Here is the input.
Amino acid sequence: MELFLDVLGETLVDTAKMLPFLFLAYLLIEYIEHRHGERIEALLAGGGRWGAVPGAVLGCVPQCGFSAIASNFYSSRVITLGTLMAVYLATSDEAIPLLVSMPAYWDKLAVLMVIKVVYAIVVGFVLDFVLRGVLPKSLRGGYTGHADEEGKPAPIWKAALRHTLEIFVFIFAFSLVFGLIVEGVGEDVFADLLGSMGFFQPVVAALVGLIPNCAASVLLTQLYVEGALRFSSLVAGLCTGAGVGLAVLWRTNPSWKQNLFITGLTWGAGAFLGVAMQVVVAVFA
Here is the structure.
């Protein structure tokens, strides 16, 4: 019971910190959905597929909220699939503050961020330019030349408040369950599991990173600092660690096929990069 109360308190505090940010984000989203006139249409149509660059840069901001905003923008057909993936792959959540607090790891942090941003932009461009004609529109989703124009009778602030509370409950419930699992099982179990994976450690780390909770990035960073995780595995896990972005995507985007595809694509992109880094290290070591 004491464990449950401790995890409950921590989860409530951590999730409550997101409320103001989420509310402001939904205000912006509702504004775009209500008032995307000809100027916004022209802006999106002319530069929508270049959104991977600002998406990757903004994804570096060390918090869980921007991936949630990107998921909502994608669900509302405001941004492209490439922009969404750029945000997801660049997001690192709490890993940045943790490594910043350790001067001995500043060089690793710099390398980490450069790799993630460059990789996020490359993947975004490949999806929006190279594979744009290959992926079916029903699977690609996102912005395809016009944003959704569904009018909502409710005032913007009311719609934003409703969405904020819905997502808050969803994130809180998931975070509570994940927190109980981590505290109940213990970090040692995760460390032993990852340590036994050998060359395929990045693949498993990428799966851990998929967990839609900021605690996943904290866990991966701690395991790396303690020597239980290789740098390539840390990169793989933090590339897939899009915070609550995937949870919000599954909650707001009606197409389960798109959601499943994006989830698998996120994992595949992170795992591929981690394994590729290990191959390069093995060849040149």
Q: What stands out?
A: The chain has 16 helices and no strands.
